[in-house]
Design brief:
This protein is mainly α and about 90 residues long. The protein has one domain. The chain has 4 helices and no strands. It has helices at about 5-15, 25-45, 50-65, 70-85. Helix 2 packs across helix 3 and helix 2 crosses helix 4.
Length: about 90
C-alpha cells in the first residue's frame, strides 16, 4: 500500500463514520484529518514511501500540537488515532 492509498483509507474511515459519530468523534476526526494530510504531504515532498514514516509523522504532529488541545481533547484525538492504527495494523508492518 502506498502512502497516498493509506491516507485515502484513513480519511475514508473518518468520512464513513460521520453519520453515526458523536460530537467528540467529529472533533477528533476533523482534527486528525489535518494531521494525516500534512504527514502524507510531507512524505511526498521528501520522496518518502514507508508507511511507518508517515505514521511517525502523524504521531509527532499530534504530539507537537498537544498544547493546542485540552487534556480531554488530546486523549480523544490519540484514542481515535490508535483506533485507526489498529484498523490498519497489518499494512504498517
Amino acid at each position: 500500500m502506498t502512502i497516498q492509498e493509506y491516507e485515502e483509507k484513513l480519511l475514508k474511515l473518518i468520512d464513513d463514520g460521520i453519520d453515526t459519530a458523536t460530537d467528540d468523534d467529529l472533533f477528533a476526526g476533523g482534527y486528525l484529518r489535518g494531521h494525516i494530510s500534512l504527514a502524507a504531504a510531507e512524505c511526498e515532498s521528501e520522496n518518502e514511501s514507508q508507511l511507518s514514516e508517515m505514521k511517525e509523522k502523524v504521531e509527532q504532529s499530534i504530539a507537537d500540537a498537544k498544547s493546542e488541545l485540552s487534556p480531554s481533547d488530546y486523549v480523544l484525538v490519540c484514542q481515535m488515532w490508535q483506533k485507526f492504527r489498529l484498523s490498519f495494523r497489518f499494512v504498517e508492518k
